[in-house]
Amino acid sequence: MNKVYNFSAGPSTMPKHVLKRAEKEMLNYNHSGQSVMEMSHRSKIFQEILEDTKSLIRNIMDIPDNYDILFLQGGASSQFAMVPLNLFGKYKSADFILTGQWSTKAYNEAKKYGDANIIASSKDKNFSYIPKVDKEMVNPNADFLFYCMNNTIYGTKFNYIPNSKNIPLVSDISSFILSEPIDVSKFGVLYACAQKNLGPAGLTIVIIRKDLLNHALSITPTMFNYSVHSEHNSLYNTPPCYCIYICKLMLEWIKDEIGSLENMKKINQQKANILYNYIDNSTLFHSYVDKSCRSLMNIPFVTKSKELDDKFIKQATLNNIINIKGHRSIGGMRASIYNAMPIEGVEFLVDFMQKFEKENS
Ligand SMILES: *Cc1c(COP(=O)(O)O)cnc(C)c1O
Asked: Which domains occur in the chain, in start order?
């Protein structure tokens, strides 16, 4: 079997350390005689896994006590509906900052349940930058202000937290969570699907300020009601047990091997710099993302033509660089270098790009 470097935007590469531990514990978790997959979600041993995962997230992300952490299913895409259904209690209105496909989807979903207003957008330049939003732009009668912190497809990230005054701030942090510290106290709701930086697909984490619970619209399906999941400690129904366990291993990896999110950010910055520095000095490869808001996690780039892009993707794949193709909506290439991508992976990619550049210019 070849060693491959997987640059997929999600599901994405996982730390070898985590996979090895999962392998070791696969048949017999902690002397229980069972795999985590086989355990009752109501058993004491699984409850411990759930509680450990919760407290690890709380500690690593420094989440204040007045926030609850929920373990849900349905992916980040279900949150596009869950957020308005649960927060539209007062005005049935929300403000949106559109910076790409995911925030556009969130906006379109919210429109089904009330008013959704776009207060800023970067669509005019194909989402290649992050618009500046100040507090005067925020509607005082909105139930929340929504934005996507890191734009997985376009490769941009917010390098500031919008000031929403007293309006709860909601952010999709699917491709940002655990990559660097976040001041959680500035937010009403943060959510992330797992398959970028938390573990396998199937788990979605919601971090919600407790005073925002219990305001759901009456039409809200029981399974879409944050309060129901909060009251039952994410055990209203069967949670994605095995995904939660892998998420625990991912968190332990950060705690034990990386140390802190400050360290994680340093490493991520270092990895991204290697690739950006090369692209900035290349005569073949080009990034169209505004330099002030470049993502550390997702780095899209192009050559001079679609034909050459296709050739690059093909040759890269033959050289054990997989899933480097850009999102189907924008083409080109994209290197997703989440927490688990080792620095050697980025160096390997840059070496290959250099070689390709020499042969094709
Ligand atoms: C991947 C991603 C999603 C979609 O997640 P699903 O779990 O597939 O629904 C939504 N938002 C962002 C920012 C993402 O990166």
From this structure: 17-257 (3.40.640.10), 260-360 (3.90.1150.10)
- Report the residue among 79, 102, 149 best suited for mutation to probe ligand 1: largest number of ligand atoms under 8 A from its CB: 102
Q: For residue 1, is pLDDT > 90?
A: no
Single pTM value for the model = 0.98
Asked whether residue 295 carries a pLDDT value surpassing 70, the answer given is yes
Tell me whether residue 309 is one of the annotated catalytic residues.
no
pLDDT band at 248 (very low <50, low <70, confident <90, very high): very high
- Structure letter (DSSP) for residue 236: S
User: Tell me, what's the pLDDT at 171?
Assistant: 98
For ligand 1, which residues put their CB under 6 angstroms from it?
10, 75-77, 102, 148, 152, 172, 174-175, 193, 196
253 is catalytic: no
- What sign has the CA pseudo-torsion 215, 158, 149, 101? positive
User: Coil, helix or strand for 300?
Assistant: strand
- Is-contact 275 337, C-beta < 8 A? yes
Q: How far is the CA of 103 from the centre of ligand 1 (A)?
A: 10
* Cα separation, 255 vs 210, whole angstroms: 26
Q: Tell me the residue type at 322.
A: I
For ligand 1, the distance from its centroid to the CA atom of residue 173, given in whole angstroms, is: 9
Confidence of residue 259 (pLDDT cuts 50, 70, 90): very high
Mean pLDDT within 123-130: 97
Q: Show the tokens assigned to 229.
A: 């999941």
